[in-house]
Amino acid sequence: MQGYEFSRDEDLARLAASYIARGDLGIAIPPEWRAFHGAMLPEFQHPIGGDRYWISIYLPGSALIEALVSQVADPALSQPLLLLIGLAALWQVSKVLLPDRPDSRIIVMLLALTSSQLLFNAMTPYAMTAHFALNLLWLALFVADRPLAHAGAILVGALALGLHKVQFHALFAGPVLIILLYQRRWLLSAIYAISYSIFIIFWLKLYPLMLAHILDLPPSAAGSKNLSISPRLYSLDPLIYIPRFFAWNNVLLLPLALLGAWGAAKDVRKNKIATYPNLLFLALAAGCATGMLLTVHQGFGWGYRYLHGYIGPFCLLAGRGWSSRPVALSSIRPVLQSCLLALILMIVQAAIIYRFATPHARAHADIVARKTDVVLVDARGSVFGQDVVRIDGRMSHKPVIMSMAHLDPATVPNLCRRYKVEVFDRAGFARVGVKGADMEPSSTTKRMDMIQNYLARTGCVS
Q: β-pairing, 53-54 with 27-28?
């Protein structure tokens, strides 16, 4: 990946971690750049910051973890450490749910260890590795079923809800917590319900107000608008994203998980009484099914990252599916063969990632190496070219990179008078090998044409 945060999400996650590590809640926009703040950080900035602060639209939990790690080590170690925590918690949960089948527990771990999605996303600043880790840590504490363990699960839940967006952990934990109602554990159910209600209200409503108060910004109804718990249901596309998810995981994950869910449901119907492990397997299956039903558009990502927090449950269900086979017939040879196939695919996928990410890293390196004040990026004709536009967290280096698509044409004359300006466009992207793509004509492209014409007419571009 060339040490390059490929997508806007990744860059913003690392940017947020850097300003949190300095003890800030955002990046103060220098007065001379306020007219251009939307072009310098085109997407995913919190509306409450206005033209005074750049603040990530996402909740700060994942960035906070990376900021803490950065105090003692390279922040890029955050995701590998979280992956190890998640794998350790997965092993612990498997011992509770599959106590009599050590072979099934081995299957659970082999499927997780051969997940390309887990491996490659742990090389990025995406919050999804934190979701994987904290969901499984929460589950390990929940199944321990002791007062202190439940207290720990509630604390982990508070952070998990604030990692990125609240719905990811809420949709994971909800089906599991329903078990408490089935068991008629009314007090514990009430404690979880009240705690989670408080946490959700805090992250969705109080956190934006806290930002406004500390940074002396006017509170706005828009402050929490983009932190909605509602998924983007208008962009459901399961036929694309479910296959992508399973293509980046072990080939046996889906069939064994389906077998495990079916086996748990069959046992409940047969025995009329649901055992605790089967209740948990059914709850995990319900969470996985909900996640697959809500396969909304994710944009860029290795695999389908919105199901990242469910990889652990899928592995546990696959272990349950394996345990339905008699011990005498449970040779793990087929799983070992699937693991070998997964390792071969990992090499192929690593090559795909390298070929895809390297040209973008080159494009960004080309831009930041220019001896100029401002570089305007015209991303038309490139795939994900817009994401090379990013800011230096300390605003201490030039050139300043701006998105032409988000630039107000009225501000261009002032920009040209005050600064030395260059353009990075289709030719620049093609030169470094970024794949081409056409952009449909729109008001945005017309505005960009106006800017290009002005630059050419006035000789502004050096």
A: antiparallel
Residues 422 and 370: beta-carbon distance below 8 Å: yes
Q: What is the DSSP letter of 144?
A: H
Two tokens at 367? 């831009």
C-alpha–C-alpha distance, residues 344 and 338, integer Å: 10
Mean pLDDT over residues 188-198, rounded? 97
- Rounded Cα–Cα distance for residues 32 and 40 (Å): 12
Q: Return the number of other C-beta atoms located less than 10 Å from residue 196's C-beta.
A: 20
Contacts of 9 (CB under 8 A, 6+ apart): 44, 58, 126, 299, 300
Tell me the two tokens of residue 395: 């605003």
Angle at 405 between CA 400 and CA 410, to 5 degrees: 80
Hey, how many other C-beta atoms are within 10 angstroms of the C-beta on 448?
23
Q: In angstroms, rounded to a whole number, what is the distance separating the alpha carbons of residues 407 and 165?
A: 29
How far is Cα 289 from Cα 286, in angstroms, rounded to an integer? 5
Q: Are the C-beta atoms of 316 and 136 separated by less than 8 Å?
A: no
**Cα–Cα distance between 240 and 256 in angstroms, integer?**
21
What would the mean pLDDT of 191-211 be, rounded to a whole number? 95
| DSSP-based three-state secondary structure for 350 | helix
Instruction: Check: CB of residue 59 under 8 Å from CB of residue 203.
Output: yes
pLDDT digits (tens, 9 = 90+) for 431-448: 999 988 877 778 888 999
Any alpha helices (H) in 6-146, and if so which ranges? 8-21, 37-40, 61-70, 78-97, 102-113, 116-121, 128-144
Q: Would you state the pLDDT for residue 222? A: 46
70 SS3 class: helix
> How far is residue 159's CA from residue 321's CA, in Å, rounded to a whole number?
32
For 74, the 3-state DSSP assignment is: coil
287 and 294 Cβ atoms separated by less than 8 Å: no
The reported pLDDT for the residue numbered 221 is 46
Cβ neighbours for 306, distance < 8 A, ≥ 6 positions apart: 128, 168, 241, 291, 294, 295, 296, 298
Instruction: Give the residue-averaged pLDDT of 92-119.
Output: 95
Mean pLDDT, range 168-182, rounded to an integer:
96
226 pLDDT band (50/70/90 cuts)? very low
Which pTM value belongs to this model?
0.94
Angle at 281 between CA 102 and CA 88, to 5 degrees: 50
Tokens linked to 198: 């408080």
The CA distance from 162 to 167, in Å, is 10
**CA separation for the pair 253, 117 (Å, rounded):** 13
**3-class DSSP state for residue 132?**
helix
